[in-house]
Specification:
This protein is α+β, with helices and mostly antiparallel strands. The protein is 24% helix and 35% strand. The protein folds into two domains: 131 residues, CAP (Pathogenesis-related Protein p14a, 3-Layer(aba) Sandwich), CATH 3.40.33; 100 residues, Immunoglobulin-like (Sandwich), CATH 2.60.40.10. Keywords: Signal.
């Protein structure tokens, strides 16, 4: 089943049944799926997806959860869908999100990987995620329960990853300095950073007669492939939302932090 969101979006679920499993090397299945995905993209002259350790972690977590609790859905038993899991486990990871899931059984790693890929490619929604010209990164996670192999693909156009943790307490009026690693496959000058304030009437002037209301752009301070963002937390007490994207657009699923 796919989920895509550009922002984020889901698609139908796939069930593929076969003969019982012997113990598989799930890491090899993951690698073969990644190879097969990029082979399909190469046939259509699309650039290969970049392997993302963070997306792999999200994908493995969901596949293992499905195998352990014997469910099959984009939404886990805690009620979290793919964007909610990203917010929980990687709140500082910026980028759109898409997800494919499926389960299958087979005799070998190669058989399982090829059958999963065949089923995804035969489904328009899953195929769209695999052949997207919007996503740039992928993570594949596979788990088994002794009878079935559960597979998750996470797709994204990743922008940046927060380095370090947010302060536990952020007082009103403080300047918050956050450092990020740039992950985008686009030029740095296209990066867009916008902070949204709890005071929706707050104004940020960009010239004498031009201003933003309720949000404002921020300029990154670059240091190689890292950059720092400084947020002055004086536009109300409550939740601030730091968002990123490119060319003036941004994913609303940003980094939220509370100012007291």
């Amino acid at each position: 089943m796919p989920f895509i969101r550009r922002t984020s979006t889901f698609f139908p679920i796939l069930l593929i049944l076969s003969s019982p499993l012997h113990a598989l090397d799930t890491g090899q299945v993951e690698k073969r799926i990644l190879d097969l995905v990029n082979a399909e993209r190469a046939r259509r002259k699309l650039p290969p997806y970049t392997h993302s350790p963070e997306l792999v972690s999200l994908a493995r977590r969901h596949s293992r959860n499905m195998a352990r609790h014997r469910f099959f859905s984009h939404t886990d038993p805690e009620g979290k869908d793919a964007p909610a899991r990203k917010r929980t486990y990687f709140p500082g990871l910026f980028g759109s999100l898409g997800e494919n899931i499926a389960y299958h059984s087979g005799h070998t790693e190669e058989e399982v990987a090829r059958n999963l890929m065949r089923s995804w490619m035969d489904s328009p929604g899953h195929r769209a995620n695999i052949l997207s010209d919007q996503f740039t990164h992928i993570g594949v996670g596979v788990a088994e329960d002794g009878k079935q192999v559960y597979a998750t693909q996470e797709f994204s156009e990743l922008v940046a990853l927060l380095e370090g943790d947010l302060p536990r307490r952020i007082p009103f009026g403080a300047e918050l300095s956050l450092r990020f690693r740039f992950l985008g496959r686009f030029s740095k000058r296209r990066l867009t950073v916008v902070v949204h304030f709890p005071d929706r009437s707050a104004k940020v002037f960009v010239s004498k007669d031009r201003y933003y209301t309720g949000a404002g752009p921020l300029d990154p301070i670059w240091d190689g492939d890292r950059f720092t963002i400084k947020v002055l937390c004086n536009k109300g007490r409550g939740v601030y939302n730091l968002t990123m994207g490119k060319d003036g657009s941004f994913d609303p699923e940003g980094l939220r932090f509370e100012v007291r």
